């Protein structure tokens, strides 16, 4: 059930207290997280209200009035993965659609915050009007064993989107992110192998583990039918953002409003960017934590990883009915 609509005119002391409590929760939940930096820097739009209370109205531009109409609902669609697949780009692009309302930061509800309960989760959501879709993205859901059952318990009809990317470049991207936070970690090569001489790969290293998509997908298929899951190519999201966004809008049952007219290729950034970000009239690229330069990895190591992933990729192509071209 939805909470009562709280307009500014009817805001009581209790209501205000409630909203302050929510803000504190939102703050606790985002404080210090990379997603927060990522979002603040990449969006130039305010993340949760608490960070920029004066700018709240801008987030509602053209969607929900500042009077606070609409109600908070649990998401009907989720971007569940994969980490470093291009999930932020997809969510930021989708937000341009007037029928999509999304949380900026990653709630991590179905993995680390599940104990907080569904009411906590729903409180994080933006208000939506009839016909609008609530969304969030948390890339770690895809590899969380409990996530499919938990999401299915919220609603069996939840639509799931997975942005997938060549598991080898994904692993290097993942490592690059860790390296940016902890410059003293061992080399990619030494983390990849259990034993460098035998070439035995350390599949327990999360950077490697996450890319075994067929295995993770298998777990989701215990709870969701294939037609409720959409796979977005992380590579195509860069080479043809409008094409991938077309597929996503169809999947969500939305009118194709986001088209090639919304994008331009930014030569400096080396990525497609939005001509106008949601709620703004200015061009907008993702921030510095998106599109990092990867370290050079020894070609032999890359080849060994390609060989390692090939059978899993083949299985994944078979399961999804789509060849993502990572092994061509
Ligand atoms: N338009 C656009 N602009 C910038 N970056 C883009 C874009 N589209 C996709 N990408 C790729 O997104 C990669 C980061 O993926 P995620 O957002 O899923 O990362 S995270 O899991 O949320 O940390 C990021 O990975 P790296 O290049 O390794 O940094 C990008 O390659």
Strand order of the largest sheet: 3-5-2-6-9
Bin the strand percentage.
5-15%
Helix content: 25-40%
Indicate the low-confidence ranges by residue numbers.
Answer: 1-35, 39-62
Distance between the termini: 49 Å
Choose one word for the global shape. globular
Order of helices and strands: HHHEEHEHEEHEHHEEHHEHHEEH
Give the helix/strand class.
alpha/beta
Q: Count of helices?
A: 13
Biggest pleated sheet: 5 strands, parallel
Which ions and ligands are bound to the chains?
3'-phosphate-adenosine-5'-phosphate sulfate
Mean pLDDT score, rounded?
A: 85
**Rg calc:** 20 Å
Tally of strands: 11
Summarize the structure.
By secondary structure, the protein is an alpha/beta fold. The chain is 38% helix and 12% strand.
Structural write-up:
The protein is of the alpha/beta class and 328 residues long. Helices cover 38% and strands 12% of the residues. The protein has 13 helices and 11 strands. It has helices at residues 13-30, 34-43, 56-59, 87-94, 118-124, 147-154, 167-181, 188-192, 206-209, 213-220, 234-239, 241-251, 299-320; strands at residues 71-72, 77-81, 100-102, 127-128, 133-137, 159-164, 193-195, 200-201, 229-233, 263-266, 271-274. Strands 3-5-2-6-9 form a 5-stranded parallel sheet. It has a two-stranded antiparallel sheet with strand order 1-4. Strand 7 (193-195) and strand 8 (200-201) form a beta hairpin. The N and C termini lie far apart (49 Å). Residues 1-35 and 39-62 have low confidence and may be disordered. 3'-phosphate-adenosine-5'-phosphate sulfate binds next to helix 4, helix 7, helix 11 and strand 11.
């Amino acid at each position: 059930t939805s909470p009562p609509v709280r307009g500014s005119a009817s805001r009581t002391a209790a209501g205000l207290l409630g909203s302050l409590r929510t803000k504190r929760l939102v703050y606790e939940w985002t404080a210090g997280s990379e997603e927060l930096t990522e979002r603040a820097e990449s969006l130039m739009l305010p993340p949760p209200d608490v960070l920029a209370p004066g700018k709240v109205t801008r987030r509602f531009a053209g969607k929900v009035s500042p009077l606070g109409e609409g109600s908070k609902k649990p998401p009907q669609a989720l971007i569940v993965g994969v980490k470093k697949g291009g999930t932020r780009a997809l969510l930021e692009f989708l937000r341009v659609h007037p029928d999509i309302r999304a949380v900026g930061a990653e709630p991590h509800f179905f993995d680390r915050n599940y104990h907080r309960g569904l009411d906590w989760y729903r409180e994080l959501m933006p208000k939506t009007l009839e016909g609008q879709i609530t969304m969030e993205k948390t890339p770690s859901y895809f590899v969380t064993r409990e996530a499919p059952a938990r999401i299915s318990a919220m609603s069996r009809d939840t639509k799931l989107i997975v942005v997938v990317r060549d598991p080898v470049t994904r692993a290097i991207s993942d490592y690059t992110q860790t390296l940016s936070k902890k410059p003293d970690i061992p080399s990619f090569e030494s983390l990849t192998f259990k034993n460098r001489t035998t070439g035995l790969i350390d599949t327990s290293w999360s950077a490697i583990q996450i890319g075994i998509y067929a295995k993770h997908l298998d777990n989701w298929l215990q709870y969701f039918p294939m037609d409720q899951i959409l796979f977005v190519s992380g590579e195509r999201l860069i080479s043809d953002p409008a094409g991938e966004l077309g597929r996503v809008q169809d999947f969500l049952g939305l009118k194709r409003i986001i088209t090639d007219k919304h994008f331009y290729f930014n030569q400096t950034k080396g990525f497609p960017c939005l001509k106008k970000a949601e709620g703004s009239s200015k061009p907008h690229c993702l921030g510095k934590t998106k599109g990092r330069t990867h370290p050079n990895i020894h070609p032999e190591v890359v080849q060994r990883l390609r060989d390692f992933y090939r059978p899993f990729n083949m299985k994944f192509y078979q399961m999804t009915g789509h060849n993502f071209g990572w092994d061509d």
